[in-house]
Amino acid sequence: MTRRESHTVRTPSANSNDLGAISGASDTTHAAPSTFPDYGSRVESIDGSGSARTLPSGQSSALSPLPSAEDTRQCSSSPLRVALTAKPPVPSYCLFSLGLSPVGATPDGYGCPISGSSASVELSHPRASVDVEQVSPNTTSYHTAPPPSRTLTEEIDCKVFAFYVEGAGHWIDIGSPEGYFHSYVPQLALREPLLLAACLSCASHLMYLRGMVEKEVEQYYNDRVVSLMIPALSSDQANSSNEALLATVVILRMSEQFLELNSDAQRHLQGAASLFLDGTDWSPVESNLATSCFWTYLRESIRISFLREQPCPFELSHLSLRDDDMTIPAATDGVWTNRMTFLIIRVGSLCWGPPRQHAAAESRSLRDLLEKWRAHLPPSFRPWCICENDNDPFPNIRYFAPWHVVAWQFYYAAKVMLAVYYPDDCADKSLHDMHRYIEVCHYTNTVQAYSPLMRENKIYQTAIVAPTRLLCGLCMSNMTNVGTNLNGSHLMAWCGRFLSGREEQRRLLNFLTDFSHNTKWPSRVECTRLEETWARSKRPWLDCLGVSPGF
Fold first, then answer.
1. What is the pLDDT at residue 270?
2. Could you tell me which residues are beta bridge partners of residue 131?
3. Distance from C-alpha of 119 to C-alpha of 315, rounded to nearest angstrom
4. Cα 329 to the chain's mean position, in Å?
5. What is the per-residue pLDDT for 160?
6. Could you give the CA distance from residue 514 to residue 525 in angstroms, rounded to a whole number?
7. Average pLDDT for residues 62-86, to the nearest whole number?
């Protein structure tokens, strides 16, 4: 096999939701790339203009030029021609968390460390061609037109970018009817070098996991996005209005999520919080790329909350959406999905956060908001198919769009969480001991006269099992839509621990295993927890209730 043949990739199917288009023979272990940027308290941006921005009046600090489209053309030559003999530089925004000295990490005007740094890379960037006007001895103003949209010419770049456009971009877009990440972002990426590097880095990582490219290719694109982020951080426009930077963070977090829990450092999640949460009152109603990035970013945080059973780490109380009574008209269906995203985050904060004085009242308020949300949904959120299958324990449920599926996934999961932690008729205690729920329905078949067991069986069946089955059916009915199941797998795994039927348990475990095999989405943690929980449920559960077996 020649060197070029070893990097040949299979072009994904035109149908972005075709699992067959992304499945590969490789069962590559989910391992973290050697370099993932971290964030400090200040995150900076890049606009790809090839120039540094004019400093505000009175500010006398020089900026290094930002990489231009020409820079990126040089930097983006095929990885087959680039020597990958050095690690990328350590960005300055990593130093706080790594406890490193900034010596050797300061970038020059090309996004590479100053000459002599032990962390230098072998990627050259010709200096951007710009017109310079000296305003003062300490201030330089650069004037340049936005770079034209470029065209990719390297075969490997084209194939990797195609995977993003036809696959990964659609998976990120599950909550956005406007389709920003698979339609607008690729076009913007051809003008924004950093955003293009993020698309290629994410796509190459996912392709590597599927055995579609070699490690050298994936490492090259990862190194490139890190090197381009360094000059981006010298900009003074790192804020919530920088759409290209927000999209870059969301895309890199998407790639980072394909790591098992113990390997996921969450650098693009935790580190970017200050970028998104800078006081901006994000609205679920506005339709633009920045708003879409924010809600996608929140959805990316929900998976960690469920895997660790911890509240959302971000302070969202400043959002006016908190007072939303669900009666405000929505321009698009995506608004309703964003509303439910915010609601499940609030439910998670209540159930997994520190004890609250008025927790019971808040749980009732959240339960009311869930039902108001459902009552005011537009007709488009109605399923076009609901049917039972004798050979499947879960119903077949279909909706017209992925954002409908995502919203209902969150709705059913939130219902289960409130029923487990704050059941309606047991306000004085939480019934989250899953072991007594899992087996209670089996035992009540033989102890019909014991009313406490019958009461708990009713809670178990109607408030926990029923929505869990709907959630599982909803996900399994949309097996060809990768994005919705990336969003739903951790929800199913958490709620699925309360399933008691052996066939239900087998079906859920097989689904998660098969989905992970086909997409390389990590599910080992979820599957292990399910097996352990179901195994423990076989122990005598009546001890949990303080009931004598001899009654």
1. 56
2. 143
3. 36
4. 28
5. 98
6. 15
7. 42
Distances in Å between the Cα of 295 and the Cα atoms of 164, 246, 276, 401 are 20, 11, 10, 17
Q: Which two tokens stand for residue 63?
A: 């900026």
Rounded distance between C-alpha atoms, residue 38 and residue 248, angstroms = 13
> Residue 219's CB: how many other CB atoms inside 10 A?
21
CA 529 – CA 260 distance, rounded (Å):
14
What is the rounded CA–CA span in Å between residue 185 and residue 202?
A: 13
Q: Which residue has the tokens 């890379």?
A: 121
> Percent of the chain beyond pLDDT 90?
44
**Which of 253, 50, 16 is closest to 150 using CA atoms?**
50
Task: Evaluate if residue 363 carries a pLDDT over 60.
Answer: yes
The 10 Å Cβ neighbour count of residue 440 is 23
> Residue written as tokens 């915010």?
342
DSSP 269-317: HHTTHHHH-SS----SS--SHHHHHHHHHHHHHHHHHHHHT---SS--T
- Gap between the Cα atoms of 230 and 39, Å rounded: 11
How does DSSP classify residue 77?
S
How far apart are the C-alpha atoms of 292 and 249, rounded to whole Å?
A: 12
Amino acid present at 298? L
435 in Cβ contact with 544 (< 8 Å): yes
Q: What is the average pLDDT across 450-478?
A: 81
**Integer Cα distance of 86 and 79 in angstroms:** 14
Average pLDDT, stretch 273-278?
70
For 363, half-sphere exposure in the C-beta direction (CA atoms, 13 angstrom radius) is 28
CA 393 distance to own-chain centroid: 29
For 3, 23, 172, 409, 491, the CA distances from 486, given in Å and listed in that order, are 34, 15, 9, 11, 10
CA dihedral 331→332→334→336, nearest 10 degrees, is 60
